Amino acid sequence: MPASTLQMRILTLGPLATNCYIVFCSETREALIIDPGWDARQILAMVRALDLRVRYVVNTHAHWDHIGANAAVVEATGAPLALHPADRPLLEAKGGADWWSIPLPPSPPPDLELQDGEVLEVGKLQFQVLWTPGHTPGHISLYEAQAGVVLDGDVLFARGIGRTDLPGGDYETLMRSIREKLLTLPDETRVYPGHGPPTTIGQERAANPFLEFLE
């Protein structure tokens, strides 16, 4: 599969500038929406403009800024919602929105409980689920090996890592996820995080100050 088969649009939405990814197969127009955290109208307008058929809506994790548009996007597309089961309690708690007095519509329950190692097929794309806990207990990343892309939510950022001071976070678990699941990917793998710009595994291995003593 040529890398050009994977196409992507990035929408940076909401008060925390959360990246919502619309990833699709250019041949079949089947799509995956990852972390619809805010502004369902903008997300759905992009889906319509690109003439896509959404196969799955996936939450990398269930913090409020990644799930806020779940209900509207799932209803409009008819696509199943997918989440790791360890984050279901956080989803049911509206991602902690009430901790910050943020009004948030409740999410529908997940239709699919994602497990480490399983594969989501979207057209000719194959996204492997990597369980990467630490930011939250059920955090996952999605790796498309042939395109050399990993969408990793709030685990690894350009010159940063996910916070671990919220309920369910754990620093040692996060660092183990980075070491065992992300740093084992090829250096040229492009990393698309939940906030901020993309990077690569190699760039973070070489220059991320949080990883200096990890390996």
List keywords for this structure.
Metallo-beta-lactamase, Chain A, alpha/beta, six-stranded mixed sheet
Proportion of residues in helical segments: 10-25%
| Shape category | globular
The chain-level mean pLDDT equals 95
Runs in which pLDDT lies below 50 for 5 or more consecutive residues are none
Query: How far apart, in Å, are the first and last alpha carbons?
Result: 32 Å
Compute the gyration radius: what is it? 16 Å
Short description:
InterPro entries: MBL_Glyoxalase_II, Metallo-B-lactamas, RibonucZ/Hydroxyglut_hydro. The protein is α/β, with parallel strands linked by helices and 215 residues long.
Q: What this model shows, in words?
A:
- With 215 residues, this protein is an alpha/beta fold.
- It has one domain (3-211): Ribonuclease Z/Hydroxyacylglutathione hydrolase-like (Metallo-beta-lactamase, Chain A, 4-Layer Sandwich).
- Helices cover 21% and strands 29% of the residues.
- The protein has helices spanning 40-49, 64-67, 70-77, 88-92, 171-182, 201-207, and strands at 6-13, 18-25, 30-34, 53-58, 81-83, 112-113, 119-122, 125-131, 140-144, 149-153, 156-157, 160-161, 190-193, 199-200.
- The strands form 3 sheets. A 6-stranded mixed beta sheet has the order 1-2-3-4-5-6, covered by helices on one side. A 6-stranded mixed beta sheet has the order 7-8-9-10-13-14.
- Strand 7 and strand 8 form a beta hairpin.
- The radius of gyration is 16 Å and the shape is globular.
